[in-house]
Task: structure prediction
Amino acid sequence: MRKIIASLLLASLFASCSKNEPPKKEVPFVWNGANLYFLLTDRFNNGDPSNDINFDRTKETGKLRGFEGGDLKGITQKIKQGYFRDLGINAIWMTPIVEQIHGGTDEGTGVTYGFHGYWAKDWTAIDPNYGTKEDLKELVETAHSQGIRILLDAVINHTGPVTEKDPVWPSDWVRTEPQCTYDSYQNFITCTLVKNLPDIKTESNEEVALPPQLVAKWKAEGRYEEEVKELDAFFQRTGYPRAPRFYIMKWLTDYITEFGIDGYRVDTVKHTEEYVWQEFKKECDVAFAQWKADHPEKVMDDNDFYLVGEVYGYGISGGKFYDFGDKKVDYFDKAFSSLINFEFKWNAQQMSYEDEYHKYDSILKNQLQGYGLLNYLSSHDDGQPFDPNREKNMETANRLLLGLGASQVYYGDESARSLVIEGSIGDATLRSFMNWNEISQNQDHKDVLAHWQILGKYRKNHPAIGAGSHRVLSSSPYVFHRTYTQGDFKDDVIIGLKLPKGEKKLEVATVFADGTKLRDVYSNQDVEVKGGKVTITSPNDLVLLERVEE
Result:
């Protein structure tokens, strides 16, 4: 098996350079079928050990609860090495990179620092543990040069916890009680998510002054006047009151106009009033249009700015709505392009491939027409992943990368990084450092990566897989067709799963005419349609067919 997969990887790599592969520029990028890679900035790759310790964050921490050195330079390094290109990734989402609280918390799990990025201290600065603005600029430009979009992570709901180094923000900015009880719409929103996580008063339209700790910080850094000047211009242009949420929107959209990022994954959506996200979308769109106008030579395509929301617990079965019990909310309305689909892992566990595909095809064409989903099977804060013990690595790839909707590859899915770390507590077990050593030294991990690479590149080259229409061609053996059309571009693929090993005869007459040359990307062999069928002989139970371009 190892030799087979290794040879498949080599064949796939050679095939990707073949003259027969459709030119990348001819394949439109479609967010609804994207192959997105999600990583914790601090846990992926350490490109600059000199920035590993800042702000005297030197206390001993709980297991996996401190900064471990991952940074922006490390991500750029892997982009340059072709790691994401070889994996078929066309978008990267990284956890928040803004400056985190300087102190640590201790809630009985040992000291925890803000390595994960969700404990903001200053939205206008990049945390030096992650790098610098120059580092972010290089990362975005390097990614764009390879056709890879960049998503940052937006937090408007809360500041970081209060510590001895991080005083609470003024009371007209945040509330520190009550704690959410999660038993009604209101009790998800006008409250703190957890103890000691001050909640931004996003409902307020009252004008507030800058927090004194930010004023002092900016003055010490010599940029107070410039920050105030930019805020004055923002509020003059928009006419918004100087209310807390609008300050933060200004600070977040600056990353669009300054660096040209392509989207935001938005945190804790259902814990904030839905109109906040409509306002945020409006400002993101303005900022993206401004960046495109200022950098016409760097514009990749005519896609809109991408906003994907984390409405924890939302699933495709709800259509456009999330149900709080006492209220249903449509977060797609004038706000999100897509929502994270928390239901996908359960569908993958409980449904056949065809039942899942039929369901998704129907809902995406009807209730969710014009919108998208971001599917995942493991993540940074879901303690019940599809395959916690990494026993179904190949099936995980098949389920995720051949599914309808956008796919979220959580860092290490593709390399069987362990999700069960001895001595860790809670979410920490999901957040170990990327297993580069295992990839380089262990053949089993190389085999897993090879499988993910072949499927990932196939998905990237064929938007029909994630964004197309689905039709079953044969139940036994199980063969299906996906098709997608955008303007003059038409994409058709045929995929077979759970096929017999050895010789396989697939009916393709309703899609491809006799004489059409096709390639099975997985076994890297070309075949011709004869009598409405193709015959493929391989040791695999998977076939990935595409048309061979003349």
User: Anything to note?
Assistant: The chain has two domains: 33-461, 472-547. The longest strand covers residues 478-486.
